[in-house]
Amino acid sequence: MAGLRSAFTAVLGCAVMITGAVAPTAAQTFPERELRILVGFAAGSTTDVFVRYLAEKIRPLAGKPIVVENKTGAGGNIAVGATVTSKPDGHSLLVTTGGTVSYNVHLFKNLGFDPIKDLEPVTTVVAFPFVLTVNATKPIKTVPELVAYMKAKSEPGNYGSVGGAGIVLSELLKHEAKFEAVQVGYRSVTASLNDMQSGNLDFMFMDPTTAMAQVRDGRVRALAVTTPTRAAALPDLPTLTELGYPRIDRVSWLAALLPAKTPEPIIRKWNEWLTTVLSEDDTKAYFRKVYMEANPGTPEALRKLQQDEIAKWADLVKLAKIEPQ
pTM for this structure? Predict the structure, then answer.
């Protein structure tokens, strides 16, 4: 028995030595080929544009070509699914909205993945408010006027949504303000704009980049933001919290993640690249121009954010009476 134990200890020691050697070797040779960044939204969408900007900034640091692949559908879940089934060698990175890797667990009966177990966090990318918008030709200039307008309709109105955030925020507004509206889903915000501009949608929560571009063109009117306090980039817009809807206090974010079991040194390498790029003055200025804030962090901080969001939105999804799809 003592001999067997000694033999086992020796084998275990070798295994530890081998395991310990794998990660540094992987880090030293990474990247070995072209890199790809998976995006769950259409080409030309806000997320897609941001990712392509970051890819160009990261390419010189990585020393390899970077291809952006759009895997659209199911509120970003298709791209996540493609990521979790990718080889965990660091050559496939996911950049997605926070909801896709947090509260989507409450919106879908079967995601096909676990956002905690099947993904390795790298870093948050940007933080931003959502903006509540209406058609600019409608006689609605404030949130109270929108609520009164929705309540006065003889039949339930409707709202546009792209992914989980739009659904949760809209359903919460319906619940808190006590009016009825039906969801109309789109694959991208761009796809919803014709219906917004024609007045076929009563309201929609948009990312600030898209929303303010439409405001400048006179197509939509911005009524409020979803952050707990006024957004620095949009100081003239009230928060829904200050208008009497404190439960609608979402700070939205984009994040970068890798497949589960990606070696830690490779996770740290991606974090280093993204942190470097997001900390540059021109990158910060780029995001401020589109009403967002560069927001790099640690893998540990992103994991905690995911867990906190999953817990927080479990109750809010129930409160809004959203049935999983």
Answer: 0.84
